Amino acid sequence: MDGGGETSTAAKEARGLKKGPWTTTEDAILTEYVRKRGEGNWNAVQKNSGLLRCGKSCRLRWANHLRPNLRKGSFTPDEEKIIIELHAKLGNKWARMASQLPGRTDNEIKNYWNTRMKRRQRAGLPLYPHEIQHLGIGNDDEFEIRCFQFPNQDHPNHQNMIQYTNSSNTSPSSSSFSSSSSQPPKELCLDPLISTNPGLNQIPNMFSPYNNSFENDNKQFGFSLTFSSSSSSNELCNPDQLLELMSENLDTNVASKKDIDVLSLMGDHETIPSYFSLGLDTTVLELPSNQTPCTSNIMHDNNVHLDSPAGNSGLLDALLEESRALSRGGIFKDARVSSSGLCEFQDKRVKMDFENRLIDHLSSSHQSSFESNSNLYEKHNEATMLKATVDDDDDDMLKSLLNSFPSTTPLPDWVEPHKPPPSSNVDPVASLGSSYWRNIPRIC
DNA sequence: AATCGCGACAACCGCCTTTGT
DNA sequence: TACAAAGGCGGTTGTCGCGAT
Asked: Biased-composition ranges for Polar residues (predicted)?
């Protein structure tokens, strides 16, 4: 985490400064020096102690290995949980994370995280457990937004994370906007296949426009969705009815997973990308380890901006390339409007992603009622978790889900309010696509 | 027994920020 | 205000040990 600075390797060697692992003798000298003179003024260590190490190397050695109250050994489960949560909240701010973990160094945390990331990447798992996504934007004076494309079955070993840092004091609450005031966030570029953290700003409203086969009459719900299923119901039912229904629709094999830990189901069994947070006023682009920085702007089709990698690992090159390819083709290359006017998505991941987002949104809107009824809450969690694994063709389930929430359910920010059907001379596919891309904010 | 892959860890590099003059 | 030095940070690389093949 430290070192170099103004002193090049050649210069150090020319000055007779040592590199490489520290010996116990050097450690003893440094420890004794700090004991006598205290921390700081590290460049004076060499002069005053005879230690042939540059100041930064001394500081690093002291901070990471010699200073008192350091905790050694593996991270505890609690510490791991904290790290994951902090990373979801802060990104690669190792020093800040370390400040939350007494006795741990930024280097330790960074090493842990990078190792973990690689491991999960190989396993095709998302970086964050599902519940962590809700922590993505905290209450700090700054918040960061990350977008991820997690590995999935179609794109194994591809992982993308772009982090946007808000330098203003914009609060999370002020960054979201209601559906009625459709003020878009500051532009961001997003991979269209990357899903959006529920309740945060907007995402592609690929389901909303010009569909009428299934339309919720409730004005407060105020949006329409279309399903290929021929059945429809405008009856509202309560959440537990939904849960009953969802449970009934789960196949027995899936239902047998009831004993599986809920959180692990949420995080590790997702088969589609389902995390990321959107934010406003993005000003700084940061890229964690193994990720690709934006260095030059490339404008692709559909006004989506993506940046070319520079000096990154091959992994990120691949990720960016995939992202670009998806952007060029557009998610709507798979969208078709059938003769019946139903929007069908050939890429089921898109639909599943939408469904899961909606589930998250609706459930979070009713978190309090769930929490007041632990059994119901547990059931809901179970159903939600298992939803990710059930047959995504089951549109009845989603329909019932939508109908099941009370009329006071707020409209997700990312669902466009219901609009009257367009005139017949409007190409529904074109409308859909333009609507979608219009709502893709950009960065860069 | 040799090799390979992987995880854990330590250390360095280069850049940026802060501080002092 | 400008400059240089010191300190801090994130990214990257190298090494070592261990288990699997």
From this structure: 156-166
State the CATH number of the domain containing residue A51.
Answer: 1.10.10.60
Q: How confident is the model at residue A64 (pLDDT cuts 50, 70, 90)?
A: confident
Q: Give A416 CA → C12 C1' in Å.
A: 44
Residues A270-286 have a mean pLDDT of 29
pLDDT at A9: 53
Tokens standing for residue A325: 């390819």
Task: Answer yes or no: do A82 and A50 share one domain.
Answer: no
Residue A58 covered by a domain: yes
| Count of other CB atoms within 10 angstroms of residue A351 | 22
Can you give the residue range of the structural domain that contains A94? 77-123
Let me know: does A224 contact A215? Beta carbons within 8 Å.
yes
**Distance CA A121 to C1' B2 in A:** 29
Total-model pTM: 0.42
Contact A293, A287 (CB under 8 A): yes
- CA quadruple A367, A372, A378, A382: dihedral sign: negative
- Ranges assigned E (strand) in A127-240: 144-149, 160-166
A80 CB-to-strand B distance under 7 Å: no
Rounded CA gap, A321 and A314, in Å? Answer: 10
* Helix, coil or strand: residue A285: strand
Q: Which of residues 20-79 of A touch strand B (CB under 7 A)?
A: 20-22, 56-57, 60-61, 64-65, 73-74
**Is A165 domain-assigned?**
no
A21: which DSSP letter?
S
Query: Which nucleotide shows the minimum CA-to-C1' distance to residue A42?
Result: C6
pLDDT tens digits for range A108-148: 888 888 887 777 777 777 677 666 554 443 333 333 333 33
